[in-house]
Amino acid sequence: MSPAVSGPACSQGYVEIQSGGVDDMPLDYAPEYQPVNEVAPPENEVIRVAQVSGANEFNRNLKKDKMKNAPPPEDGIHDPDNEGTFVLQPPLEAYEGLPPSEFGNYVDWVKAIDEEKINPRWDRVDSSEEPFVMDMDIVREVKASVPDVVFPHRQHTEWLSCSNCHPAIFIPQKGANQINMSAILLGQKCGVCHGKVSFPITTKSCKKCHSKPKPADWQPPLSEATLKNPWR
Ligand code: HEC
Ligand code: HEC
Ligand code: HEC
């Protein structure tokens, strides 16, 4: 007999299974085990089993926040049963007066540094230590019709030392690294940080990275198959 399953198949929630429908299993692999009858659910009792989530549920970045920058006990990240959670400063209070953005935690952190609204310490111990800022843009020409990607070293080296990226994430040589959106969305390459500690990949943030318009005479590159096609 198979258990009767009811409830809407594709919606969130629970599936109800009628108990008492499964035959007793032979227990010769564990002869000392005695089933405890009092604990067994009575016939026809409804067991509630959590429904498998929808395809995109696992990705935190694809989920709409109920509230922007919720206080720690309500943000779904910090433990509301831990007293320490209530000691933390709520982000809305901490971010007051900082330049806004449309994604991530809704602060434009690069602008915040440029406008000297914040002055993050470069060295945890020595407050006089200065960052080694390097102003060098790397343009990555994208084969697709989206604007090309400009990777700016200046904005990154104001927060990060070279060793955060070189050589573990990127070989320091223009074009030496294979980068694509799938890798980024899976948390590799730029996605090691973007979507975790720096602005995420959303439909509103594409142009932050894809910032260099294609030349007016740009044509999509032809594939190997087309180039080698003898009938061309
Ligand atoms: C946030 C990550 C990141 C940080 C931090 C970073 N870089 Fe890079 N760097 C890159 C990327 C991405 C490229 C481009 C690689 C490519 O095109 O394949 C690159 C390229 C380079 C190149 C090659 C340039 C060329 O024309 O071939 C050099 C040299 C370099 N970085 C030096 C540095 C130095 C020095 C620092 C520290 C002051 C630094 N980088 C900090 C990500 C970073
Ligand atoms: C954090 C920076 C960043 C953001 C944000 C970003 N991209 Fe990309 N994107 C890249 C890089 C880097 C590449 C690889 C470029 C190359 O070929 O060297 C890329 C490549 C692409 C490609 C070419 C195909 C591929 O996968 O390589 C497409 C199409 C694309 N991006 C679309 C988008 C769209 C649409 C968005 C917004 C939803 C977006 N990107 C947001 C960095 C970014
Ligand atoms: C080691 C972490 C790290 C990696 C890897 C990384 N970034 Fe960033 N990126 C940051 C941080 C931190 C900021 C500044 C905070 C913010 O804007 O969220 C930033 C900001 C930016 C900005 C915003 C500049 C501005 O003027 O507002 C762009 C564009 C950008 N990153 C592109 C890229 C691209 C493209 C890659 C991959 C080739 C990449 N980043 C890889 C950490 C990283």
Automatic annotation (TrEMBL):
Cytochrome c7-like domain boundaries: 149-211
Lineage: Bacteria, Pseudomonadati, Pseudomonadota, Gammaproteobacteria, Candidatus Tenderiales
Domain of life of the native organism: Bacteria
Coiled coil (residue ranges): none
Renumbered residue ranges of the record's region Disordered: 60-86, 210-232
Biological source species: Candidatus Tenderia electrophaga
CDD domains cross-referenced by the UniProt entry: Cytochrom_C3 (cd08168)
Protein name stated in the entry: Cytochrome c7-like domain-containing protein
InterPro entries reported for this sequence: Cyt_c7-like, Multihaem_cyt_sf, Nanowire_3heme
